[in-house]
Amino acid sequence: MCGACQGTNERQRARVARSHLHRLWGGAGHEVLARIFSDTGRRVCRIRTREKRGYADCRQGSRTPIKNVHVQLLDIPFKQAFVHAAAVRAHTESVLVTVTNDDGVKGIGEGCPRRYVTGETVDSVQSFIETYREQWMAFESVQDCMRWAAEHTSVIDQNPAGWCAVETACLDLFGKEAGRPIEALLGLPVLSGRFQYSAVLGTDNLSSFEKQLQWYRSVGCTDFKVKVTGQWQDDHDKLARLASVDDPTMRVRLDANNLWRDAEDALAYLRQLPGHVTAIEEPLGVGDYNGCRRLARELNIPIILDESFLRVEQFALIQNDPPSTWIINIRVSKMGGILRSLAVAKRAGEVGLAIIIGAHVGETSVLTRSALAVAHRYRDLVVAQEGAFGTLLLERDLCDPTLMFGSGGQLDATTVGHFAGLGLTLREEK
């Protein structure tokens, strides 16, 4: 051990850092050990997890200070409008945060503020970033980022998409400075292999629905998420069409976007729909856990929690139920970034719940890449993964390479997994 680490002040600092990081990772879970000491002007940060022994040694050196934290609106047109019960979207409604150091190296992060999910708007994200920009410009390491998050839990609870964009941009910057992927900075497994994505069918008319279904089937997709509207004939006809497909490997789940007022109405409606459904997402009002318990019990399928589950503390509301009652939809933006998403996934595993790695409509490759870190670490819990539409939906993407599923609904992560930071390059930089 370095002599500087043996002093009383350094031991006190290590205990404080350990306490903050322990809280960030959700209590009894990851053991995050932060050791910060001075060694010829360099800071060495060591992260150890119980699941994976060993260290990610993040030598920042006399790193270049952060010069600027910039936020901009992303307004990218869709190739086709996407409709569901809570919104109609024809373009992205996201923010891009760029963190730049004095050498001009940029880290990028994306957030998707949604008023009906987290209460955020683009304007509120911009205000949040303006309020705390100066504090973030003092960050020198991943541990500084973790520590700030642990000390500002309630602030992030109110601004999860905004913090997601900032945190991701910082991780990307620190990874680029260190020449390492974000997974290496966080002590996570190196990103590798293929990821299976779900096809998503919106609430378009039956003709458009049929075209989308044919295209998804032509590329080999077998896992489908179907938006329902409460319009009986439309929902019936679409699910009847899916039920007519002769493929025993096909799975169908529904997303109701908080459509029904009570469990009685939802049961009466859902029992009449044709075909076999494996799960239903957010059928009732946000936070109606008792009503959802009844649906899960009487329909004998799990309820997927999305808008009703935004942070790790909410496990207290559901963790005593049979594990077959719930699936947690982890969208990195609504959870408040990669680190908070990892904490939720870890706790889900501890209480025996499956997870879906979700996505907001219109995410670019930045959020797709962020979600891969969580999906890869908790592959054993993931029952479905959403997003990675890239330029299948967007008129253009921000980065190279564009992360987009292909044949069979699969994405090969080797295109970015071994490159520094997120492994993405803003096209304006090329």
Report the oligomer.
single chain
Distance between the termini: 43 Å
Number of strands: 20
Gross morphology is globular
Q: What structural class do the secondary elements suggest?
A: alpha/beta
Q: Which CATH architecture of the largest domain?
A: Alpha-Beta Barrel
Tally of discrete structural domains: 3
- The average pLDDT value, as a whole number, equals 86
Q: What proportion strand?
A: 15-25%
Q: CATH first level of the largest domain: which class?
A: Alpha Beta
CATH topology of the largest domain: TIM Barrel
Strand order of the largest sheet: 10-11-12-13-14-15-16-17
Rg, rounded, reads: 22 Å
Outline the biggest β-sheet.
8 strands, parallel
Uncertain regions spanning at least 5 consecutive residues = 1-62
- Separate helix tally: 13
The fourth-level CATH homologous superfamily of the largest domain is Enolase-like C-terminal domain
What portion of residues is helical?
Answer: 25-40%
